[in-house]
Write a structure and sequence with these properties.
Helices cover about 55% and strands about 5% of the residues. By secondary structure, the protein is of the alpha/beta class. The structure holds zinc ion.
C-alpha cells in the first residue's frame, strides 16, 4: 500500500508559481495544525499529479525518472508561489508539511508497516524527504535556522545551495519557456475541480477543509495560466474504497485524489507529533506511537 500511496501519493509546479489560498475554516474536529498539515500535503500531491498530467498532455521530454521530476516540480512550485503573491511563510510551511509526511511514512514502513518496495518507480520515502529539504535549503540556507530539525547532512547541503537548487530552478524555467504559454497566446482547455460526495461520513470535514482552502482551484487556475492544454482535464476528489492514493488517469484526463489519502495525512500528522514527543533513544516508545495514534475516525 505504501508503494501505491507513494506513487500515487504522488503529486505539480507552478511551475514557479502556486499560492494564495484562503485560510481554512474552523472545523471543530481538526486543530489548526492538523488542517495545515492536511492542506500542505494535499497541495504538494496535487502539483505532483499535475506534473504527470502536463508531461503526458504536452509530451514534455523527461530525462530521468518521471516520479522524481514530478516531486521536483511540486517542491519548486511551493517554494516560489505566484509572481503576484508575496512570498511568505505559508507555502514554506506547506512544503515542510509534505517533507515531514514523507519522513513519517519512512519511519512507519521501517518500524511498523509494509516492507519498503525497493523496486518501486519512486524514490524511497526518506529520499523524497531529503530531496525536498535539499531544495528548501538551496532556496534559502536560513531555512536551517527556521527548521533546525531538517537534519540535512553537510555533505548534501553544500551541493544543494551550490548546484541542485540552481539546476532545478533553471530547468523548470527552461521547461516553461519551451512548453509554457506565452504572454500573447490565448488560453487552452480548462481545468475543472470537482469534489464528489464522500461515501464515509467522516471524510466530509476533510473534503470541506481542502475545498475551502482553495488549493485545488488555485492549482487549476495556475495551470490554465501557465500552459495551453490540448483538452480539458479534471481534478477530482473522490471515494476510493480505502485506497490511500492519488493518481493521473490519462485515459480520462483526470487527476484523482482519494479521500482515504486525506485521512492518511491526518494520521501521519498524529504519528509525527507522537514521535516528536517520544524519547528519541527509546525505539519501544516510538514504536508504541504507531499503535497508540488512532486513525482519523472516518466512520461509516
Ligand atoms: Zn507520481
Amino acid at each position: 500500500m505504501d508503494a501505491l500511496r507513494t506513487c500515487n501519493r504522488a503529486r505539480v509546479v507552478g511551475l514557479a508559481l502556486l499560492l494564495g489560498y484562503a485560510t481554512a475554516p474552523a472545523v471543530e474536529d481538526l486543530s489548526p495544525s492538523q488542517q495545515q498539515f492536511l492542506v500542505g500535503n494535499t497541495l504538494w500531491t496535487l502539483v505532483h499529479e499535475m506534473g504527470h498530467a502536463l508531461i503526458s498532455e504536452l509530451d514534455i521530454h523527461v530525462l530521468g525518472r518521471e516520479e522524481d521530476v514530478a516531486d521536483l516540480l511540486a517542491s519548486l512550485a511551493l517554494l516560489h508561489g505566484t509572481p503576484n503573491h508575496a512570498h511568505g511563510d505559508e507555502e514554506i510551511d506547506y512544503l515542510w508539511a509534505a517533507a515531514v509526511g514523507w519522513r513519517t511514512e519512512w519511519w512507519l514502513s521501517r518500524h511498523d508497516g509494509d516492507p519498503t518496495p525497493y523496486w518501486d518507480s519512486h524514490s524511497l520515502d526518506i529520499q523524497r524527504y531529503y530531496n525536498i529539504v535539499c531544495l528548501m535549503y538551496g532556496h534559502n540556507p536560513e531555512m536551517l535556522e527556521q527548521h533546525p530539525d531538517l537534519d540535512l547532512p553537510g555533505g548534501r547541503a553544500v551541493g544543494c545551495s551550490d548546484h541542485e537548487y540552481l539546476r532545478a530552478e533553471g530547468s523548470v524555467r527552461r521547461m516553461l519557456a519551451i512548453y509554457g504559454r506565452s504572454e500573447r497566446q490565448p488560453g487552452g482547455a480548462k481545468v475543472a475541480v470537482r469534489f464528489e460526495a464522500p461515501t464515509r461520513a467522516g471524510h466530509q470535514p476533510l473534503a470541506d477543509i481542502v475545498e475551502a482552502s482553495g488549493v485545488a482551484a488555485h492549482v487549476a487556475e495556475q495551470t490554465e495560466m501557465l500552459f495551453v492544454l490540448p483538452r480539458p482535464i479534471s481534478l477530482v476528489f473522490g471515494a476510493c474504497l480505502g485506497d490511500e492514493s492519488a493518481f493521473w488517469r490519462p485515459e480520462l484526463g483526470e487527476i484523482v485524489v482519494c479521500y482515504d489519502l486525506l485521512e492518511r495525512f491526518v494520521y501521519l500528522h498524529g504519528l509525527h507529533q507522537c514521535l516528536e514527543r517520544a524519547d528519541e533513544d527509546s525505539l519501544a516508545a516510538r514504536r508504541s506511537c504507531a499503535r497508540s495514534v488512532t486513525r482519523y475516525p472516518a466512520g461509516g
